[in-house]
């Protein structure tokens, strides 16, 4: 029994420490998904979380300004003005009517401040085969390892 | 046309009236699948633009090379390709064992046929790639006539890797069907003995090898094509491919426990089951976009089919397990915490923890939506936090495990086996510290890499020394001879060495640097030892696209060394852009230059340069891993017959290092 107990302790320590690290990582990187419609109903602390919002880029709404790019996302009949303030150039796939996913925080006056923009071409998107479907949408985010 | 024949033949196999007819039906099914796949390729090569699938994924100017790849560029074709690869496996299994394992094969055949039926149903009724344009239901395109030209292949896929990566990864995914069929078949048949475990192990190794290659090729594709400077982003689909690899790796290790000690039988069977389930889940995640797609692409009914299939597999597995549970009774118990068994146990535990972490992270948006109503995703920090320590722990076990004795290891043998490697590893750590190495995880990784590499080399050295003393051959020849005598053991070491290389490469990521700048002609950019001088840009029209190249001269320590040409490609047919990264790769570091776009402020081209140390080691390690697996798959060369008397004692010194019950050594292998 003593041996089993030793194994039990070893296993417990490993699982517990991994669980702890997972919890830390979770806190650091959790991101909420919201739809454009939901965004307008959020209040209080929920409004300052890091979140992702998806929608379609409104035709003719992309405006290049000094230091930022403004555009409007549409979805479920609502619209959301977005300012992209990231450093990286926007992906090639980011054009009128493309499906875009923006990541950032709600800013003042109902404007969403995005640090990362991903875009997929609406017309022809299909998950890339062989394991890279999700990586295929181009992103401005130099994340990962 | 092909379709119904294939489906019917597959269903026939479900009722094994006669073993022989079943087998032939199985082979016939495979034949029909080959025919179907070839017809689709034929349609691509003849530019038959009346078939919806060909229109969406090809065009006249697409080069031959990529027309092959167009087969798996979309949903329907990928699933057909799945069936095709499965058929390749099934037919080789059916033919290889046609006169062997009479008791077991019918069961195995039935399981394989069951899986085939599922995919063929999808191919025929849900996602048929042969839909002609104009027939109701063809993606909204209602032209009754054939198109003049196709829409072309997504630029992202027009890259050499994309032609070899999916087949590899899919071969991995499908390959795990075979071990699954053997395990489930053996359990259902209550097949006596451990024979099935050898067969399972062999096929797992094949699938594992393809999976490893697939993952690494995918990483390389992401690195070279997506242009974000990295190779692994913990993307759901990447994770999906990693999951079965993790459990497959766990199985390959714990199966040894069963072979040598008759332990962990329940565990092993479930590992095989889970690996297969994760393969199906992986295909499902890849194809259905359940997680990655927050854009709610209405992605056909395929998701429901997969969920149904997974549930059925689970039910069958549970059913078989509970019915024949007693068949899997363990013969032994764990003896000591410092033993081979426990190192395998911890190896398994860690791989499983990692698998659970990756899986839960990947599916987090789905689960959080169920439980809290909010869709929450977790990003790279989550995965890195858990998996970096796990990886390091695994690396440690890689070094320690193989040198521990079965049952119990004495302190003395610990000292003898680990004294030198540990010393060398720590010495390397100290040297690194002196040279100003300050990244904690990378530092640990460096020590462990040196440690593991020395244990592996020491093993080869010791073994080869013994053989050289006996045969007088050169050292290298002795090492080769040694490897050939016990391919599985030394092949395994080679795989471990490959993993060390991979880890070296991964550790380099801690030192990645990048700079981004708007570049006027004549501007320079400084990164590490390199100076990038912008000389201008040109435009090159090609057959299928127009390339815009930046001409960047690279100066190293003030001396011009080479030109790099990062490109943007504009594809006429798809009106999409592709990025071609220019990479100058050395063992020390990669200089990775991207034409990142045009600056909105200045209207000048933006150059993004990355300096990624040691990346090449990852690809190198991958090659070594594949080589090692191939070696391990070779049959052992028996020592020259004349020496057979001397062979027995020869096996002993190999096992030297470890004062163990001799009968339990890995030294004598089967297969």
Describe the structure.
The complex is a heterodimer of chains A (about 140) and B (about 675). Chain A has about 140 residues and is α+β, with helices and mostly antiparallel strands. Chain A has 2 domains: about 1-30; about 30-140, Beta Barrel (OB fold (Dihydrolipoamide Acetyltransferase, E2P)). Chain A is built from 2 helices and 8 strands, in the order αβαβββββββ. Chain A has helices at about 1-30, 35-40; strands spanning about 30-35, 50-55, 65, 70-75, 80-85, 100-105, 110-120, 140. A 5-stranded mixed barrel of chain A has the order 2-4-5-7-6. The termini of chain A are far apart. The model of chain A is unreliable at about 120-145 (pLDDT under 50). Chain B is of the alpha+beta class and about 675 residues long. Chain B folds into 3 domains: about 1-155, no CATH class; about 160-380, no CATH class; about 510-615. Chain B is about 60% helix and about 10% strand. Chain B contains 20 helices and 11 strands. Chain B has helices at about 1-15, 20-45, 50-55, 65-70, 75-95, 105-125, 160-175, 175-190, 195-225, 235-260, 265-290, 300-325, 340-370, 380-400, 410-435, 440-470, 475-485, 485-510, 615-635, 645-655, and strands at about 375, 515-520, 525, 530-540, 545-555, 560-565, 565-570, 575-580, 580-585, 590-600, 605-615. In chain B, strands 3, 4, 5, 6, 7 and 8 form a 6-stranded antiparallel β-sheet that branches. A 4-stranded antiparallel β-sheet of chain B has the order 2-11-10-9, with no helix packed on it. In chain B, a hairpin with a 4-residue loop joins strand 7 and strand 8. In chain B, helix 2 (about 20-45) packs antiparallel against helix 5. The longest helix of chain B is centred in the middle third of the chain and has 33 residues, at about 340-370. The two termini of chain B are about 40 Å apart. Residues about 1-10, about 135-145, about 295-300 and about 640-670 of chain B have low confidence and may be disordered. The interface between A and B is large, with 59 and 94 residues.
């Amino acid at each position: 029994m003593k041996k089993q107990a030793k194994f039990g302790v070893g296993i417990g320590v490993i699982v517990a420490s991994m669980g702890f690290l997972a919890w830390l990582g979770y806190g650091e990187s959790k991101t909420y998904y919201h739809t454009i419609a939901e965004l307008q109903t959020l209040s209080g602390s929920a409004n300052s979380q890091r979140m992702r919002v998806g929608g379609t880029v409104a035709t003719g709404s992309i405006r290049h300004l000094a230091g930022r790019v403004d555009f409007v996302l549409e979805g479920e009949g609502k619209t959301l003005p977005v300012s992209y303030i990231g450093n990286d150039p926007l992906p090639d796939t980011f054009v009128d009517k493309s499906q875009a996913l923006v990541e950032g925080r709600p800013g003042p006056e109902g404007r969403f401040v995005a640090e990362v923009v991903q875009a997929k071409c609406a017309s022809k998107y299909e998950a890339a085969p062989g394991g890279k479907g999700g990586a295929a949408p181009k992103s401005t985010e130099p994340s990962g390892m | 046309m092909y379709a119904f024949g294939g489906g019917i033949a597959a269903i026939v196999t479900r009722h094994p009236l006669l073993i022989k007819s079943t087998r032939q039906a199985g082979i016939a099914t495979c034949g029909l699948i080959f025919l179907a796949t070839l017809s689709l390729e034929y349609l691509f090569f003849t530019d038959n633009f009346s078939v919806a699938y060909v229109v969406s994924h090809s065009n006249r100017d697409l080069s031959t090379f990529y027309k092959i790849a167009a087969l798996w560029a979309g949903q329907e074709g990928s699933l057909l390709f799945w069936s095709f690869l499965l058929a390749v496996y099934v037919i080789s299994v059916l033919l290889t064992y046609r006169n062997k394992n009479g008791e077991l094969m019918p069961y195995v055949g039935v399981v394989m046929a069951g899986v085939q039926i599922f995919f063929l149903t999808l191919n025929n009724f849900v996602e048929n790639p042969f839909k002609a344009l104009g027939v109701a239901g063809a993606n909204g395109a209602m032209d009754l006539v054939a198109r003049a030209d196709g829409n072309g292949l997504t630029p992202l896929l027009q890259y050499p890797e994309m032609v070899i990566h999916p087949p590899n990864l899919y071969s991995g995914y499908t390959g795990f069907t075979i071990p699954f069929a053997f395990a489930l078949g053996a359990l259902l048949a209550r097949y006596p003995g451990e024979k099935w475990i050898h067969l399972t192990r062999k096929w797992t190794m094949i699938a594992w090898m393809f999976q490893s290659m697939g993952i690494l090729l995918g990483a390389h594709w992401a690195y070279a094509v997506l242009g974000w400077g990295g190779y692994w982003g913990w993307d759901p689909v990447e994770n999906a491919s990693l999951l079965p690899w993790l459990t497959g790796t766990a199985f390959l290790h714990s199966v040894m426990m069963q072979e040598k000690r008759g332990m962990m039988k329940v565990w092993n069977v479930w590992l095989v089951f889970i690996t297969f389930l994760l393969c199906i889940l992986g295909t499902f995640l890849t194809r259905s976009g359940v997680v990655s797609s927050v854009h709610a692409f209405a992605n056909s009914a395929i998701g429901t089919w997969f969920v149904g299939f997974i549930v059925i597999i689970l039910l069958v597995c549970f059913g078989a397990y509970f019915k024949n549970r007693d068949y899997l009774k363990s013969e032994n118990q764990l003896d000591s915490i410092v033993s081979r068994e426990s190192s395998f146990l911890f190896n398994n535990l860690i791989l499983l923890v990692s698998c659970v972490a990756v899986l839960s992270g990947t599916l987090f948006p789905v689960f959080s939506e169920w439980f809290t109503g909010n869709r929450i995703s977790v990003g790279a920090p989550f995965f890195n936090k858990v998996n970096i320590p796990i990886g390091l722990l695994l690396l440690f076990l890689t070094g320690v495990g193989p040198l521990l004795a079965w049952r119990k290891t004495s302190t003395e043998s610990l000292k003898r086996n680990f004294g030198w490697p540990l010393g060398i590893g720590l010495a390397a750590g100290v040297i690194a510290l002196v040279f100003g190495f300050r990244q904690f995880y990378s530092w640990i990784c460096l020590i462990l890499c040196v440690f593991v590499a020395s244990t592996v080399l020491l093993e080869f050295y010791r073994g080869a020394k013994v053989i050289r003393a006996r045969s007088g051959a050169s050292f290298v020849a002795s090492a080769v001879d040694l490897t050939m005598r016990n391919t599985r053991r030394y092949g395994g070491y080679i795989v471990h060495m490959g993993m060390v290389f991979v880890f070296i490469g991964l550790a380099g990521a801690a030192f990645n640097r990048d700079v981004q700048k708007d570049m006027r002609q004549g501007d320079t950019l400084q990164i590490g030892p390199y100076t990038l001088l912008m000389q201008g840009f040109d435009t090159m029209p090609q057959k299928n696209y127009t390339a815009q190249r930046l001409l960047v001269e690279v100066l190293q320590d003030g001396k011009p060394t080479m030109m790099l040409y990062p490109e943007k490609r504009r594809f006429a047919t798809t009106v999409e852009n592709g990025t071609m990264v220019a990479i100058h790769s050395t063992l020390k570091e990669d200089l990775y230059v991207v034409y990142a776009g045009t600056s909105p402020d200045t209207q000048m081209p933006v150059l993004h340069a990355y300096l990624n140390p040691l990346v090449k080691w990852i690809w190198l390690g991958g090659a070594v891993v594949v080589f090692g697996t191939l070696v391990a798959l070779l049959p052992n060369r028996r020592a020259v017959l004349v020496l057979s008397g001397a062979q027995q004692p020869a096996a002993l010194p190999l096992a030297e290092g470890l004062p163990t019950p001799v009968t339990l050594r890995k030294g004598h292998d089967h297969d």
